[in-house]
Amino acid sequence: TAYEIRLSLVGSEMCIRDSITTGKVYSSVIEKERRGDYLGKTVQVVPHITNEIQEWIENVAHISSDEKDNPPDACVIELGGTVGDIESAPFVEALRQFQFRVGKENICFVHVSLVPVMGPVGEQKTKPTQHTVKELRGLGIIPDILVCRSEVPLVDETREKLAEFCHVSPEAVVSAHDVANIYHVPIMMNKQGVSELLSSKLSFDLPKNSNLLDEWEIMANHVNSLEEEVHIAMVGKYTGLSDSYLSVTKALQHASYSVGKKLIIDWIESVNLEETVKSSDLTAYDNSWELLKQADGILVPGGFRGRGIEGKINAIKYARENKVPFLGICLGMQAAVIEFSRNVCGLKNANSTEFDKNTKYPVIGLIEEWFDKTGSVEYRDINSNIGGTMRLGEQECLLEKDSNAYYAYKIKSILERHRHRYEFNNEYREILQKNGLIIAGQSFDKTLVEIIELKDHPWFLGCQFHPEFTSKPING
User: Which residue, of 246, 310, 315, 418, has the greatest Cβ tally within 10 A?
Assistant: First the structure.
């Protein structure tokens, strides 16, 4: 499972090296063992795994993201998970060792814990925090600051009780109660003296300007003030578990803030847009279509396998015919190609071989199903070690000038994150383009279609990659 540590270099932008998962750690250790770095010694969690974690933290913490010589002054290390989980044990042990590696004066442990509010009188219970602090101390980590999540601000009695039982000063017990939006949390913590606590623990001077978060507060209040709603229909098959689309929803939120709109995501189970549901559950069918037709924009995200695919295709057809702004990501782009092939190009029952291996018109297929006819040596070489047929990771996309994609990015070439096996079948490029499909983005050797658009549509864009993970421009 993806237990991870995330690093934030203060005052810099985050990039791929700032997150490390269990998989990354073990992969690196295995590579070193096979290369002979451990001189044949038996590889163990301690010291090899824990050392790998510590070395990663130290290396990244000394790299300046702006590519200048000056390293950052401070580094925020976040260990996700729950105290006591078996998956997090190597990371906790690594941080225990790390305090001695860098010196206790150079590290401050902040423990985030829940303070539930119980009963009709709203009693704040401290037992969960007491137990997790005891567990941490048993693992060799003594928290310097407690950040207590609660529905309401901590009362003095709760704060003093936690300070007594957890061996910290009352000033180091910080209330992280519910606020209007998440951007108010740093402001709230700063008002409780967290900056002073950190400066004292790590021996650095605070800037004389006492209004450090003025601009941040303006932004947080801006989010609060948004009233004009924008409705985006999210048509997927995992809508019951919204975390499946977390990166997409966060990207939409940030976009809505920048244009001064209050985002409302209308979750639509794609199966409910299919004709088969009309006879079995007319209410779900009608409600789903009503939500879709009221949306200001329609987004079809990624996914696997065939359940709900016809519902996604129906939603895309509606967006195309009614000029509703549309974005398709990964499978959403592939569904858009299938819909256009069927209903515009006359390729009846066109499909992806993922859903119908015997389809007469495989407009989407595995690379090897059509690659030998149109592929390039360069693409084979660069993907020879990805395992199976999946195209993974950061890859270059060339944008077509005067396309909406080019207008959005304002650059010629971008690096984007991929994770898929099925591709646009180049055998159908010509017929789709003749009928109004625009190839707006291609792989670096122009053999694989990355972005599609439509003529005479205000905004209809499908992309094979995940645009919320845009890393950086290559040129432009």
Answer: 315
Cα separation, 469 vs 461, in Å, equals 16
Sequence-separated (6 or more) residues with CB below 8 Å from residue 291:
233, 266, 268
- Angle, helices 214-225 vs 246-258, to 10°: value is 100
Determine the residue type at 155.
V
Contact 428, 476 (CB under 8 A): no
Which residue's entry shows tokens 């790998």?
Answer: 52
CA distance linking residue 476 with residue 344, whole number of Å:
34
Identify the three-state secondary structure at position 2. coil
Chain CA centroid to CA 215, Å: 25
Q: What is the mean pLDDT of residues 43-66?
A: 87
Please tell me the distance from the alpha carbon of residue 461 to that of residue 451, in angstroms, as a whole number. Answer: 7
DSSP 403-459: SHHHHHH-SSEEEEEEEESEEE-GGGHHHHHHTTEEEEEEETTS-SEEEEEETT-SS
Q: Average of pLDDT values for 316-331?
A: 94
Q: Could you give the CA distance from residue 192 to residue 177 in angstroms, rounded to a whole number?
A: 12
Most confident of 52-61, 333-342, 437-446: 333-342
Q: Residue 286 gets which letter from DSSP?
A: H
User: What would the DSSP string read from start to end of 220-257?
Assistant: HHHHHH--SEEEEEEEES-TTSGGGGHHHHHHHHHHHH
Give the helix ranges, DSSP H, for 71-184.
Answer: 89-102, 127-138, 156-166
266 touches 291 (CB < 8 A): yes
Q: Using the 8-state DSSP alphabet, how is residue 296 labeled?
A: S
CA separation for the pair 153, 262 (Å, rounded):
27
Which residue type is seen at 411? I
pLDDT of 212 over the 80 cut: no
* Better-scored residue on pLDDT, 2 or 30: 30
Distance CA 223, CA 181 (A): 8
Q: CB within 8 A of 119, min separation 6: which ones?
A: none
- Residue 69: pLDDT band with limits 50, 70, 90: low
Three-state DSSP at 365 gives: strand
Q: H-helix or E-strand containing 113?
A: strand 110-114
Task: List the catalytic residues.
Answer: 330, 466, 468
Query: What is the rounded distance in angstroms from the CA atom of residue 315 to the CA atom of residue 239?
Result: 15
The closest of 430, 422, 414 to 388, measured between CA atoms, is 422
- The DSSP bridge pattern shows strands 262-269 and 229-236 to be parallel
How would you classify residue 152: left for phi > 0, otherwise alpha for psi between -120 and 50, otherwise beta?
beta
Tokens 């070395």 label which residue? 55
